[in-house]
């Protein structure tokens, strides 16, 4: 760690040097101060970004869209911008500390996201109405929160480090990285971290100490891809720069702080609080948009949450079967029968 932590410090020095050049050299201090509420919000968001499978945009998006009544497209673009600093900083910190990562699934997800995210930003996201963006975000993270409220004990009990050369994990990462990059990240600015994390803890039954840092790295990479595409296309939403200018110096340190502190206090309390917040933002989004959604729209949003949870449970059943096979191989036993029962379910 001592031999490589200087790379993270070099990144911080470069970033703060550029930031000071902007606020002092270009006299933009007033712009940063004008958006101080976002800096305060991202102090919490950046901690969550480094300590949980949630990007910083998971806090920034609802703050801008639900609290400040900004367009959902602004929340998405801000997510890209702020995560390209906070989660990149956290990722460099993770790599410098040589924390274990689920490399097989991560490699696949990196390739999938690199190909699909630009396509989604350019061709899919412009077709999605602002309301759908808000509800899609709320559904994704609401279902994620509910999953953790009733599966937290099981998820935090995993101790498998993962196979760095597993072909199945690579293929799963490639597929999910492409789907999440095209369908979730391009629309909301977040989501691939949650999808890859869910696959790791439910399907591969990987320890949180491996799954969460892996989710941080894939979200950081995808955010940088998003920033590059948005910059080349020249399609940034007005207001992103001011909010970024205020929040970036906070998240550059806040996200790595989350990586460090969670190792001291444990992940279960943090994940529980985050899960409650995820469910709360779903309720908040539905309440805020109830006039537009109507009873049918709210019912469809609830149905979407149920479908997401069903998908999570399907992954979990596949993961239980996979874990049983792995255990039998370690013990020198036979393969698991096709209709092997796990915890009362036939898988």
Summarize the SSE layout with pairings.
Elements: H1 5-25, H2 29-34, H3 36-51, H4 57-67, H5 72-96, H6 103-124, H7 130-155, H8 167-188, H9 192-203, H10 208-233, H11 240-265, H12 267-288, H13 290-330, E1 341-342, E2 345-346
Antiparallel strand pairs: 1-2
Helix pairs in contact: 1-5, 1-11, 3-4, 3-11, 4-5, 5-8, 5-10, 5-11, 6-8, 6-10, 7-12, 7-13, 8-9, 9-10, 9-13, 12-13
Protein name: Probable membrane transporter protein
Keywords: Cell membrane, Membrane, Transmembrane, Transmembrane helix
Main location: membrane
Main structural class: mainly alpha
Strand order of the largest sheet: 1-2
Give me the strand/helix succession: HHHHHHHHHHHHHEE
Large-scale geometry: globular
Query: N-to-C terminal Cα separation, in Å?
Result: 43 Å
* Estimated share of beta-strand residues: under 5%
Biggest sheet: strands, sense, closure? 2 strands, antiparallel
Q: Return the average pLDDT rounded to an integer.
A: 86
Number of helices: 13
In percent, how helical is the residue content?
over 70%
Alpha-carbon Rg, integer: 20 Å
Low-confidence parts: 340-347
The number of distinct structural domains comes to 1
Give a count of the beta strands, DSSP E runs of length 2 or more.
2
Plain-language structure description:
The protein has 347 residues and is mainly alpha-helical. It has one domain (5-326, 341-346). It is 80% helix and 1% strand. The protein contains 13 helices and 2 strands; from the N terminus they run αααααααααααααββ. It has helices spanning 5-25, 29-34, 36-51, 57-67, 72-96, 103-124, 130-155, 167-188, 192-203, 208-233, 240-265, 267-288, 290-330, and strands at 341-342, 345-346. The protein has a two-stranded antiparallel sheet with strand order 1-2. Strand 1 (341-342) and strand 2 form a beta hairpin. The relative contact order is 0.17. This is Probable membrane transporter protein. Belongs to the 4-toluene sulfonate uptake permease (TSUP) (TC 2.A.102) family. It comes from Microbulbifer donghaiensis.
């Amino acid at each position: 760690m001592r031999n490589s932590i200087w790379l993270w410090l070099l990144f911080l020095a470069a970033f703060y040097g550029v930031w000071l050049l902007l606020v002092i050299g270009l006299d933009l201090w007033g712009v940063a101060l004008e958006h101080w509420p976002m800096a305060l919000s991202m102090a919490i968001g950046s901690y969550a970004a480094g300590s949980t499978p949630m990007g910083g945009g998971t806090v920034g998006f609802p703050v801008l869209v639900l609290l400040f009544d900004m367009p959902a497209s602004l929340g998405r673009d801000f997510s890209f911008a702020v995560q390209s600093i906070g989660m990149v900083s956290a990722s460099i910190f993770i790599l410098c500390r040589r924390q274990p990562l689920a490399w097989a699934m991560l490699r696949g997800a990196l390739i999938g996201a690199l190909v699909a995210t630009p396509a989604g930003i350019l061709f899919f996201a412009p077709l999605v109405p602002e309301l759908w963006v808000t509800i899609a975000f709320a559904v994704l993270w609401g279902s994620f929160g509910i999953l953790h409220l009733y599966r937290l004990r099981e998820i935090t009990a995993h101790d498998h480090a993962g196979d760095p050369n597993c072909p199945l994990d690579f293929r799963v990462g490639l597929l999910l990285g492409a789907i999440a990059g095209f369908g979730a990240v391009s629309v909301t600015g977040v989501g691939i971290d949650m999808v890859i994390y869910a696959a790791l803890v439910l399907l591969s039954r990987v320890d949180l100490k491996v799954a969460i840092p892996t989710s941080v790295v894939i979200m950081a990479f995808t955010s940088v891809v998003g920033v590059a595409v948005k910059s080349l296309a020249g399609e940034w939403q007005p207001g992103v720069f001011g909010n970024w200018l205020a929040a970036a110096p906070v998240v550059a340190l806040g996200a790595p702080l989350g990586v460090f502190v969670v190792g001291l206090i444990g992940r279960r309390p943090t994940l529980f609080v985050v899960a409650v917040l995820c469910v709360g933002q779903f309720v908040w989004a539905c309440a805020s948009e109830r006039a537009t959604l109507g009873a049918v729209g709210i019912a469809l949003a609830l149905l979407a949450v149920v479908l997401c949870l069903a998908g999570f449970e399907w992954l979990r059943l596949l993961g239980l079967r996979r874990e049983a096979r792995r255990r039998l191989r370690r013990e020198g036993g036979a393969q698991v029968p096709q209709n092997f029962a796990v915890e009362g379910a036939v898988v």
